[in-house]
Amino acid sequence: QIGMVYQQRGELEKALDFYQRSLKLDEQIGNPSEIAGSLHQIGIMYHKKGELEKALDFYQRSLKLKEQIGNPSEIAQSLGAMTLLYRQKNDTLNELRQIGRALFLLPHLPNPGLQRTIAFIFQETLQSIAPQEREKLLQSALGAETAMKILEMIS
């Protein structure tokens, strides 16, 4: 909680310090869900600081644990954060890969707000791609069959 207070104040270094302390405690206790949450928060701090490679590392570590736990909402949250990070890096292929994975979680997300957020991020991603390139990029990112399913969903 202390990390969030510092984060809201814009004191990212202090927030990062508290999230790192929290991670150490979570690891000592051994609660995978709390560890995943702390890893994600650290990823957010690095993302906000513009340290994208560090942020990506923490997001990926968090995502791996969340997938082991099997909570679709938490997985979608990480995929959404990674999508935005790849967008910031101008890496459209990986941006599509992450948001494409998150799209298939929509039916399993109990939170309508999170569903709308994932759908909005996907829509923004598609709008950033020239129409004549969309199908090709989707196929490259997700494979032909998945790309066709997504294109059918949005048309």
Could you explain how this protein is built, in words?
By secondary structure, the protein is mainly alpha-helical. About 85% of the residues lie in helices and about 0% in strands. The chain contains 9 helices and no strands. It has helices spanning about 1-10, 10-30, 30-50, 50-70, 70-90, 90-105, 110-125, 130-140, 145-155. Helix 5 (about 70-90) packs antiparallel against helix 6, helix 5 (about 70-90) packs parallel to helix 7 (about 110-125) and helix 8 (about 130-140) packs across helix 9.
Radius of gyration over C-alpha positions, nearest whole angstrom = 16 Å
Helix content: over 70%
Main β-sheet description: none
Q: SSE order in H/E notation?
A: HHHHHHHHH
Whole-Å distance between the termini? 43 Å
Task: Give the class from helix and strand content and strand pairing.
Answer: mainly alpha
Which regions have little confidence, pLDDT < 50, spanning 5+ residues?
none
State the shape: globular
* Mean pLDDT across residues: 92
Total strand segments: 0
User: Proportion of β residues?
Assistant: under 5%
Count, helices: 9
Outline:
The protein is mostly helical and 155 residues long. Helices cover 84% and strands 0% of the residues.
List keywords for this structure.
single chain; 84% helix; globular; 155 residues; mainly alpha
Blueprint of the fold:
Layout: H1 2-9, H2 12-29, H3 32-49, H4 52-69, H5 72-88, H6 92-103, H7 112-127, H8 131-142, H9 144-154
Helix pairs in contact: 1-2, 2-3, 3-4, 4-5, 5-6, 5-7, 6-7, 6-8, 8-9
